[in-house]
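4.2 Preliminary Data

To establish feasibility before requesting continued support, the project team ran the inverse folding procedure on a target of 382 residues. The structure was first converted into the token representation described in Section 3, and no sequence information of any kind was made available to the design step. The complete token record follows.
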């Protein structure tokens, strides 16, 4: 068993890759900070209360971390969990200055340019009609976490694998990759009592996997949150890219609405198209949610998912870009985001904004694909 695991680790090392760090960080001058914070005060996409709620959750997470642990070390910029906690507490205490005294607010914080070309996308909570039992109408299962899914932290074997995990199952005396989406859809998990609910629409179920959480409405009107519980560890493949590669969509036309429409127009291809993404998500039912990777509730228009190696969870940033409001209509924004979540498709300099639930959230999440300027906020040490 150990030899097989070592072999798999060696294979991972062959295919492991790194990405280039962004340009050296720039610490904005007081004048530049005042201009930026003034934009934020006018173009903030969340409410003050939403920001305060998100900060409270951020503080609850950060206060439990080792304050001396370095979480970002890039160029001349180094910060610890303690720095992030100090920043969150200071922002909480002085948030009203953002609207009342920009100059004083600007003096309290350092602002660093992390990137001028970060990809910002969006995600949301889809609603699905569901039932606790399988029927002719509700026949597509939502699976809970299987007990034969094993995960090993490769960083324990060698520092070069830090942050990488191997997902597998044991078959006799062999280690095998966990079942793919195609294998699971074709019955690999049937008969094990793993179904937590059944839904009507397999395409909407597929997008529940992409979003990572959602809400289920049952025939009696009961609503339950369905939350991320785990994944099979297979590589995530974007359905939009698959459709473009097959000539079914043009790259510039890819969004949630056009993907749904394309699948409706080609029902005979739906299974094969979805199986092109072997990644599979397992869920759990809950009364509250959704929760981010920091085990705190997500806040619409404030919480973002990030790659921890690019933007550490617990960081506070300003994003500056454009938000789609309706077809061919967008609005400029400069808004404060808190890194509180992650996702299988969120790698390198890519952030994913949690948009909440409802029609507005679905539209924006489905159409948001902007290259934004990204600034890190840190409290000045006094």
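Position-by-position output of the design step:
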């Amino acid at each position: 068993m150990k030899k097989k695991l070592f072999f798999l680790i060696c294979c991972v090392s062959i295919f492991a890759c790194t990405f280039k760090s962004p340009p050296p960080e720039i610490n904005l001058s007081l004048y530049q900070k005042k201009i930026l914070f003034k934009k934020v005060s006018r173009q903030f996409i969340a409410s003050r209360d939403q920001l305060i709620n998100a900060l409270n959750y951020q503080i609850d997470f950060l206060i439990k971390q080792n304050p001396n642990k370095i979480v970002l070390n890039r160029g001349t910029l180094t910060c610890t969990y303690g720095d992030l906690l100090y920043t969150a507490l200071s922002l909480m205490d002085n948030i009203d200055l953002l609207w009342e005294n920009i100059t004083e607010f600007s003096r309290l914080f350092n602002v660093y340019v992390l990137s001028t070309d970060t990809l910002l996308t969006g995600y949301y909570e889809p609603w699905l009609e569901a039932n606790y039992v399988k029927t002719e109408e509700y026949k597509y299962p939502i699976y809970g976490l299987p007990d034969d899914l094993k995960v090993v932290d490769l960083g324990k074997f060698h520092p070069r694998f830090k942050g990488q995990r191997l997902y597998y199952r044991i078959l006799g005396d062999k280690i095998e990759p966990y079942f793919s989406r195609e294998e699971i859809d074709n019955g690999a998990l049937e008969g094990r009592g793993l179904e937590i609910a059944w839904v009507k629409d397999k395409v909407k179920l597929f997008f529940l996997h992409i979003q990572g959480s959602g809400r289920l409405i049952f025939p009696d009107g009961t609503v339950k949150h369905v939350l991320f519980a785990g994944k099979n560890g297979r590589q995530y493949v974007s359905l939009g890219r698959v459709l473009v590669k097959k000539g079914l969509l043009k790259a510039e036309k890819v969004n949630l609405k056009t993907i749904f429409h394309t699948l409706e127009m080609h029902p005979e291809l739906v299974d094969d198209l979805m199986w092109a993404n072997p990644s599979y998500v397992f869920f759990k039912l809950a009364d509250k949610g959704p929760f981010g990777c920091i085990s705190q509730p997500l806040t619409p228009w404030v919480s973002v998912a990030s790659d921890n190696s690019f933007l550490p969870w617990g960081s506070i940033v300003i994003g500056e870009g454009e938000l789609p409001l309706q077809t061919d209509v967008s609005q400029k924004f400069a808004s404060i985001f808190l890194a509180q979540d992650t996702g299988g498709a969120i790698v390198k300099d890519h952030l994913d904004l949690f948009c909440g639930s409802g029609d507005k959230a679905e539209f924006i999440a489905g159409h948001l694909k902007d290259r934004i300027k990204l600034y890190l906020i840190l409290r000045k040490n006094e």
